[in-house]
Specification:
Structural class of chain B: alpha/beta
Distance between the termini of chain B: 60 Å
Order of helices and strands of chain B: HEEEHEHEHEEEHEE
Number of helices of chain A: 18
Number of strands of chain B: 10
Number of strands of chain A: 9
Strand content of chain B: 15-25%
Number of helices of chain B: 5
Strand content of chain A: 5-15%
Order of helices and strands of chain A: HHHHHHHHHHHHHHHHHHEEEEEEEEE
Helix content of chain B: 25-40%
Strand order of the largest sheet of chain B: 5-4-3-7-8-9
Shape of chain B: elongated
Oligomer: heterodimer
Helix content of chain A: 40-55%
Largest sheet of chain B: 6 strands, mixed
Structural class of chain A: alpha+beta
Largest interface: A-B, 43 and 40 residues
Shape of chain A: elongated
Distance between the termini of chain A: 36 Å
Radius of gyration of chain B: 21 Å
Radius of gyration of chain A: 45 Å
Amino acid sequence: MITFHTDPKQLSSVIPAKAALRIRTKFGLGSNSIIFPPRSFFAPSPPPRRRGKSEGRLTSSTLAIIGALTIFLFLLVSSAIAATAPDLEDRTREIATELRCVVCQNLSVADSPSEMAQQMRAVVREQLQAGKTPEQIKEFFVSKYGEWVLLKPKTSGFSALLWILPYAALILGIVAALWFVRRWSKAKKTRREPAQQAAVTVQAQNDFLTQNLEVPDIEDTSARARLLRERGRLKDELSELEFDFQSGKLSETDYQTLKRESETKGGTVMQQLGALPPEPVTKTPKETPTRAAEQNKLARPSRFRAWQVVAGGVFLLLFGLALGVMLTQSIRPRASENDTMTGDFMTGTTPAAGDARVAMNEGKQAFSQQDFPKAIDSFKKALAADPNNPEAHAYMGFILIQAGHGDGALMAFDKALSLAPNFPMALWGRGTVLYQDKKDYAGAREIFERLLKIVPPGEERNEITKVLAEIPTGAGEKKQPVVPAPSASAPQPRSAQITGTITIDPKLKASVDPNAALFIIARPAGGAAGPPLAVKKIDKPVFPLAYSLSQENVMMQGTPFAGKINITVRLDKDGNAVTRGPGDMTGDYKKNPAEVGVNNADIVVDQLTQ
Amino acid sequence: MPWRRLVLIGVIIGPILGLLAFGFTRDARYISSPLLAQPATPFTITLFDGRKLALDELRGKAVFLNFWASWCPPCRAEARDLEAAWQKVKDKNLVFIGVALQDTDQNSLEFLKEFDVTYPNGKDETGKIAVDYGTWGIPESFFIDPQGRITYKHVGSIRAALVLTKLEEAAKSIASAQEGKGDYSPIK
């Protein structure tokens, strides 16, 4: 979508009077000539104040009485106001702080100086006076604008999530942190706390009774094998005790005592087993991972978990820092009325767009200080970041006017207008060049009339009307004869050029390559082969294109640009003047040869190379 | 095991961050107006010719309501289109109303004269009508059906063809689900 990058009001205010004056001088224009409306339009001087003269005379006593009455009335009224107004104003403000100014960037209705915010405050005040509650008033605005008008989202419905989620996340975070810390410290202390030790013993005894472990070979002399054999022996002992008790060889008491003894021993063995380093994989009883092994895992101070906690902490810290930095950077005043409301950060505006904006601002500043080289640099940067910025093209156009390059300026304005057909600044620039430089009065009038349609009434409009009145009306002729410019630096008078417009045949319009380069080639009439007299290359041309050929385009220095010349144009797909390929388009001036000085050598590109 | 846990945490945090990032790309103003398919707030406006016009009196007619200002370029861009649309339908059971916002009488009148606007136009003196219709950028256009219900809202300049289409829909009480967008100027 193409939008106006500049308020039409800025049309004149962007160009300081001094720069305008220099531009005028460059073109040899008088003070009545136009380039930009004078800035003084924007600072109307206040009318002079005059002290009123009283007609009659008043006695001092009458004056005293009137004075006393006035003071009395004033006190009476002000006390009455003081009793009610502050309260109403405070309440209005209170509600207004919770409403978003609908035309600003993150400002409340209370804080915004905009007219709309004033009107909204008036509505709040009115509704308060009518006895509505703050909730009813906010609800009224929500029903008109939607929930976004509330600076604090509602605490019910889907918006409630906005309130709940941060707290939920905070609580979750605390719980998670506590859980990690607890697990970490637990792992460290497993073997030190007596109470826990007792629990471990009981667990080990249970494991001893319930788990089935393989009894290793007798040749295996490792600690694990010995313990496992001991465990097997104790288990056998327990079964024998059971058998003896069942067959009546053992009394109940003896049985219990002996059983407890074996179980305790078994538990100790299990614990010792658990404390051993993990056994080789081949010997692991895969189907029953021992509880002891788990204990072992717990018992070791976990280096991995410590790493996790540290990494988590560092991540959270970095995340917080990044978020903080990005958010604070995204807060800024809106650069223009078409700027986003939410700021830069992740608003869909790419860094390139951000760069472009910075470059644009620098460029404008440099332009206003008449630092043109710097301005050119900045606008080039802006165009590199966003080649479709009509404002940057228009500024380039104004700089080119300033430098005396009417054709270049015209191209820049054309480019701007191809991007934003109603961009006032570019229209103004194009009109000015056509009028002042090209003396194409009909073209200029057309542009200014177009501008008149879109510029609101005001100083600019009056200025445009004035310019329109100034433009000479030729009796039916399209273009006025070219008047030589009083420029000392030009080696030849300005009439030593050929100008005209290049257009594309409507039938070929669809096959125009937007990246093609246009060559305007001039050859002496009747001349044989050999290099052309003059060539002009225009990258990415925008049609219709106003062109001019003059001495400065001559290829061999010293050759005069004079006489009868054949003019042809080629829209070259690969931009190489030497090669010719399919897709190239050509056209020539139908009245070839053209006399130098002719200013309507219009050319239609109508042939397509197959 | 720890990797599975990290993936799990990612699965939880990822969408939350994604939602956050998505939220930053949204402009709150582009949430569709809550006024669509809702009854239009009644108002009475004093027209520039001195007559008074009340929305309530227009029941039974489809209404095209347009907020504009003479200082707003997109309003100028659409002015001829609106008048052209009006010329096409003025004999039908339809009403066009223009409401000037934040503008002086003189500028408004000049605007109307310049674009030969013939449909009724008045001024929103206090800005109350603008607030009632939730305007934030002009021009803003509303289409109201014969029962007094808003069927469509368009922020920014609008073309004659769309005006005529949406008026037909309004006459049949067909409400659009979303508002339309064009070039606009934020109000001051």
